[in-house]
């Protein structure tokens, strides 16, 4: 098999989704599987759906188109505000999108009318992360505007926490989001079906025993894929953290002294390297580099420590276990390393599954009111 190679265990993705869906269901919260870290890989998306996700979400229209071409028909939410230059593609591939700009919503509405359809709008509210979001005091105005615009349907509101700047959300933050849902309804009528409470960063809150309020959806990527809490990096109880592993091949192993360059330039100094107590280490090179992944986001086996990486080389150090040339080292990945490895053309993606691939659940996308996202 070729290396570097990302080995993807679809059963673990499916099981992680199932565990989260089953824990959130009693709280009245559905799971939208977020596929952006895996570039909308259709088989991984299908594993999320067969694990019980009620829909999918991605930040890039090309990823959504890839899933559609693979026959995935469930509701898909565009979670990045659509580009004006892509509104036609967003309307034709996604049931709904997250939005913060009235001008873009107007353009989506026009595209939907041209395509003879309606496009769902989730209004994202700024709740402290300072990435995307409408300021809470402006929410009802924009919501009213959406309800009066043919071609778009106000499907709900959402918020994002702990992605750019903010901390994990508190119970107060989430109660404030519920109040905003009530306030929007009071102004616009009973339109707020979906209250999408955030990402994997909100799981700690969502799985707690306090009231879930109006929040009835989470958009989960990292927790499903890597089994970790993005805020702390700590594994979430009961989830697989090794659904993705990266295999890299050893191409050099040598015992190198820090004095090696001096030995070459000055024979007199070479004697120094024979003095006991000098720091001799076994260094190896793995044939993988910054073009393939975020090297700083890799997790190494216990006996192997990361020294550094360049575009095509990754240098590690070992003690008492020199790595054999041609052997493979198994690496685990954080979110950033996964994101880069999935997008890298020279990293082979190898899928395994403990059961034959299930088709994506075919929630209809023809109806005017598709299933809850
Ligand atoms: C990426 C993203 C998510 C998913 O985040 P995870 O930490 O992977 O769960 C959810 N919502 C929005 C708007 C996002 O951009």
UniProtKB/TrEMBL annotation:
Its cofactor is pyridoxal 5'-phosphate. Keywords: Isomerase, Pyridoxal phosphate. Residues 8-225 form the Alanine racemase N-terminal domain. InterPro entries: Ala_racemase, Ala_racemase_N, PLP-binding_barrel. Pfam families: Ala_racemase_N. It comes from the Bacteria. This is Alanine/ornithine racemase family PLP-dependent enzyme. It comes from Leisingera caerulea. The lineage of its organism: Bacteria, Pseudomonadati, Pseudomonadota, Alphaproteobacteria, Rhodobacterales.
């Amino acid at each position: 098999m070729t290396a570097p190679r990302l080995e993807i265990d679809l059963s673990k993705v499916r099981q992680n989704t199932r565990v989260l869906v089953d824990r959130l269901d009693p709280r009245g919260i559905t799971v939208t599987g977020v596929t952006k870290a895996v570039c909308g890989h259709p088989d991984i998306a299908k594993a999320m759906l067969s694990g019980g996700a009620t829909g999918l979400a991605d930040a890039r229209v090309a990823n959504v188109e890839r899933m559609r071409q693979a026959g995935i028909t469930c509701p898909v939410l565009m979670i990045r505000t659509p580009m004006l230059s892509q509104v036609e593609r967003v309307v034709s591939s996604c049931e709904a999108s997250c939005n913060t700009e009235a001008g873009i919503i107007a353009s989506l509405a026009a595209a939907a009318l041209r395509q003879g359809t309606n496009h769902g709008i989730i209004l994202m509210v700024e709740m402290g992360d300072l990435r995307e979001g409408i300021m809470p005091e402006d929410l009802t105005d924009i919501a009213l505007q959406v309800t009066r615009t043919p071609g778009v349907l106000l499907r709900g509101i959402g918020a994002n926490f702990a992605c750019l700047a903010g901390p994990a959300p508190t119970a107060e933050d989430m109660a404030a989001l519920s109040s905003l849902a009530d306030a929007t309804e009071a102004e616009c009528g009973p339109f707020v079906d979906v209250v999408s409470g955030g990402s994997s960063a909100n799981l700690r809150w969502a799985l707690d025993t306090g009231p879930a309020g109006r929040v009835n959806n989470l958009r989960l990527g990292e927790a499903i894929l890597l089994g970790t809490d993005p805020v702390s990096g700590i594994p979430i109880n009961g989830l697989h953290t090794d659904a993705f592993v990266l295999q890299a091949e050893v191409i050099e192993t040598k015992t190198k002294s820090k004095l090696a360059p001096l030995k070459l330039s000055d024979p007199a100094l070479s004697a120094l390297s024979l003095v006991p107590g000098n720091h001799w280490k076994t260094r190896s090179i793995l044939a993988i580099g910054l073009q393939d992944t975020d090297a700083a986001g890799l997790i190494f086996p216990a006996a192997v420590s990361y020294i550094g990486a360049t575009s095509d080389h990754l240098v590690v150090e070992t003690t008492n276990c020199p790595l054999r040339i041609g052997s493979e080292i198994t690496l685990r990945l954080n979110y950033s390393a996964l994101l880069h490895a999935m997008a890298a053309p020279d990293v082979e993606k190898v899928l395994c599954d403990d059961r034959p691939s299930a088709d994506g659940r075919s929630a209809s996308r023809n109806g005017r009111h598709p299933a809850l996202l």
